[in-house]
From TrEMBL:
InterPro entries: Cilia_flagella_integrity, Leu-rich_rpt, Leu-rich_rpt_4, Leu-rich_rpt_typical-subtyp, LRR_dom_sf, U2A'_phosphoprotein32A_C. Residues 319-332 have a biased composition (Basic and acidic residues). The keyword Repeat applies. Its main location: nucleus. GO terms for cellular component: cytoplasm; nucleus. The lineage of its organism: Eukaryota, Metazoa, Ecdysozoa, Nematoda, Chromadorea. The keyword Repeat applies. It holds the Pfam family LRR_4. This is U2A'/phosphoprotein 32 family A C-terminal domain-containing protein. It is found in: Nucleus.
Length: 349
């Protein structure tokens, strides 16, 4: 749109000429037999008629200006649908998409999880950065494996009773105060709850397959009572209020312990960490114990098993090897040659 103003000699505007130019129209050619359609960043405001797409499986409307989900009833072949970063306010008109396995509605303006009852094949569901206040509407989604509800307004973990196949649950940047109602999720391997209001780590003892738990930016003061049978590999307590760490020495599978930006001022934490044979990466910077000049050298000396400290390589992998065991003559007689060639069959030494 061009605007031209005409004024008289004394500065009085006499008239204004407005010329409206048509917006540039971008045409995208999509074959009728296309299986993957990507309409990312096409300034689409409304979903048109795509009924001629009879084979489409993956459809992306990422980064557009769509306000309403509509006109998708005929696309029953869809398995993946993405509306990341639009202006959608309501989940609707998806009932016919019964083959959907993945649905992404992140970065929209949705206030309620609803109208998903028919999508019983869904395995992954994303609602990052919306205005959702409650976990609900997931009862029929028994195949759900990956649920991402980060950056919403959720105050409580609830209504996941039927989602027994959940493998990864992400609830970061909400208003959650307690870890609760997850004990029945026996297949859960990743639980992510950073940037909430959690002060106590509790109710995770039943998660027998839990490998990673992320609790950064909460208000946790003490680490204690984590079940020794948990196969944890990553334990994230960055930027909390930790004053003491106890009873993690039994987590023999732990590879990563992150506790930067806390209030740890006691070297007794080393008594816990030294007992972890698989420990590889440790973060303890921005704690009182890290303020002394000898901090880094002391940690590296005490924790002989780690290769990274505070994000920096501290020991070469090649230096970490088990001691050689001397074999007696009886053991040598049972050694079998490795990688025998076709011309030399396997023989005992």
């Amino acid at each position: 749109m061009n605007v031209t103003s005409v004024t008289s000699e004394d500065g009085v505007k006499e008239f204004e000429k407005i010329v409206v130019e048509p917006e540039d129209i971008e045409y995208v050619e999509i074959p009728a037999d296309a299986k993957n359609v990507d309409l990312t960043r096409h300034r689409i405001k409304e979903i048109g008629d795509y009924s001629w797409l009879t084979h489409v499986e993956h459809f992306s409307f990422r980064w557009n200006l769509i306000k309403k989900i509509e006109n998708l009833d005929c696309l029953t072949t869809l398995t993946h649908l993405e509306f990341y970063d639009n202006q959608i306010t309501k989940v609707e008109n998806l009932d016919s998409l019964v083959n959907l396995e993945s649905l992404d509605l992140s970065f929209n303006r949705i206030t309620k999880i609803e109208n998903l009852e028919k999508l019983t094949k869904l395995k992954t569901l994303f609602f990052v950065h919306n205005k959702i206040t409650k976990i609900e509407g997931l009862d029929t989604l028994t195949e759900l494996e990956y649920l991402e509800l980060g950056d919403n307004r959720i105050a409580k973990i609830e209504n996941l009773d039927n989602n027994l196949k959940l493998d990864r649950l992400f609830l970061g940047a909400n208003q959650i105060r307690l870890i609760e109602n997850v004990d029945h999720l026996k297949k859960l391997t990743v639980l992510s709850l950073p940037a909430n209001a959690i002060t106590v780590v509790d109710n995770i003892s039943g998660l027998h397959n839990l490998k990673e738990i992320y609790l950064a930016q909460n208000g946790i003061k003490y680490v204690c009572g984590i079940d020794e049978h948990l196969p944890l590999e990553i334990l994230d307590f960055n930027q909390n209020r930790l004053e003491k760490v106890e009873n993690i020495h039994q987590l023999k599978t732990l590879t990563d312990f992150w506790a930067r930006g806390n209030k740890l001022d006691n070297w007794s934490i080393m008594d816990e960490l030294v007992e972890l044979p698989q420990l590889n990466s440790v973060y303890l910077d921005f704690n009182p114990i890290a303020s002394v000049d000898t901090y880094r050298g002391k940690v590296i000396h005490l924790l002989q098993q780690i290769t990274r400290l505070d994000g920096t390589q501290c020991r070469e992998h090649s230096m970490l090897r088990p001691p050689k065991e001397e074999k007696n003559e009886t053991e040598l007689s049972r050694v079998v040659l490795d990688n025998p060639s076709d011309d030399h069959p396997t023989e005992s030494v």
